[in-house]
């Protein structure tokens, strides 16, 4: 069974302050009515470079200046409607080490075998603390990694 150890946690901010002309973006009616779920998207890579983590952080920071709502927080108005507060608070970036399983066995096995990868330990229960996006870099033995 895989064991996931968190090595570091940090918030990645946009590379430059974002515009203030949209400080808040309302969620659509469909988003308002949908249950709060996260969609996990996993990307697996076999190549490892020493500066992979720094490149991912830098790329994410550059991307957030264009997709600035992802660096905000989901809030509830007094009327029960949800919106994204575009406040540049950043995207959570976790770096983890995975032991007890190889990347190859995860690629070959059913999805339940990699439970724990991409599971953020402090996922908030309170709606006002929810972040629109999370990112994790998981390193495997033999220097393989995945990102999501």
Automatic annotation (TrEMBL):
GO terms for molecular function: acyltransferase activity. Pfam families: Transferase (PF02458). It comes from the Eukaryota. Keywords: Acyltransferase, Transferase. Coiled coil: none annotated. The keyword Nucleus does not apply. Gene3D superfamilies: Chloramphenicol acetyltransferase-like domain. The keyword NADP does not apply. InterPro entries: CAT-like_dom_sf (IPR023213). Belongs to the plant acyltransferase family. This is Salutaridinol 7-O-acetyltransferase-like protein. It comes from Carex littledalei.
